[in-house]
Amino acid sequence: MKDLDALLKERLSLIGKIKSFDDFMKGTVYLSKRKCSNPKCKCHQDKKYLHKSYVLTVTKDGKTHTLSLRKGEVDEVRKLTENWKELKELVSELTDINMQIIKLKKELNRGK
């Protein structure tokens, strides 16, 4: 197990990384492929002609919300969702370190 000073330095480093995020959002960006409502369209005859569009899905309060994205919006929104995933990982790491710190402090206090 690491010593308390090492854990505190690691925690400080993670907090710095977490603070560096200026924007993020929970959600997923993906390419949707679907048939349109026109039965005469090629998309109804052959899957290779399915209509493609980028979509953002966000689950909030147990409901999934879907939003179509323009090509110019995809990179910006994808970056926001990637930031969220990275932030979640950092918070998980911070939680692990804080757990170790708490356990170590308990052990040190027992020894007194």
**Largest pleated sheet:** 3 strands, antiparallel
Low-pLDDT ranges: none
Tell me roughly what share of residues is in helical segments: 40-55%
Q: Return the average pLDDT rounded to an integer.
A: 94
**Strand portion:** 15-25%
Q: How many beta-strand elements?
A: 3
User: Order of helices and strands, N to C?
Assistant: HEEEH
Number of helices: 2
**Cα-atom Rg, whole angstroms?**
23 Å
Q: Count up the domains.
A: 1
Terminal Cα separation, in Å? 19 Å
Provide the structure class: alpha+beta
Shape estimate: elongated
Strand arrangement, major sheet = 1-2-3
Layout of helices and strands:
Blueprint: H1 4-19, E1 28-34, E2 51-60, E3 63-69, H2 71-110
Antiparallel strand pairs: 1-2, 2-3
Helix pairs in contact: 1-2
